[in-house]
Amino acid sequence: MRHFEFHKSHRIGWLRAAVLGANDGIVSTASLIIGVAAAHASPDTILLTGFAGLVAGAMSMAAGEYVSVSSQADTESADLAKESAELMDEPENELKELTGIYMARGLQAELAHQVAKALTAHDALGAHARDELGISEMVSAKPLLAALASAGTFAVGAALPLLAVILSSPSMIVTTVAVSSLLFLAALGGLAAKAGGASLIIGAGRVAFWGALAMLITAMVGKWFGVAVA
After folding, report:
1. Are 138 and 10 in contact (CB under 8 A)?
2. Which residues contact 201 (CB under 8 A, 6 or more apart)?
3. Nearest residue to 42 via CA among 55, 51, 33
4. Predicted structure pTM score
5. Quick one: which of 10, 13, 99, 125 has the fewest CB in 10 Å?
């Protein structure tokens, strides 16, 4: 009977992009709204600023994530092409290299050689990609998926402070956005920690802390330069 195990590490690719996008959406939009509100802007101006921040931020996240992960994918492809050429030109040296890797991990020389031969016969490039280069299907770069995840989650995250503005009275915008955004951030940090198998309290706390710091600094900037905006 086969034994199945469920691990958290298969979520690394999309979880990182999704958490980054949602966190940035909440923090940047809430901070932008609070900064403009602290400068005594009108509710319509605050809302318009928030919507502009949502659109610009989502596109920026998508472009930045796509370019970044594409660079990683290009590097992986170049390494795999190089490894494939070496397997064609110097198969014995590549077999010795793979044997050395397994010996360094604790296998005896004879067993390491047998394992290297077996894996080379089964999938030589796959064995070198995984054990020499650290590239596997689970963690390999997927630019489009990362870009869509970041843009989508940014938009969702940014929509939460905007919703708080719509539902708040003009005099309570700063307080409503700040409190609700901190709650959203704590929830996001907790969910991300749970999905990754980490502590909910630590995950929620660190995300809320940096969000609070960003909103505080932006509010101070808006207050200081409010005369020019009002």
Report:
1. yes
2. 190
3. 33
4. 0.67
5. 10
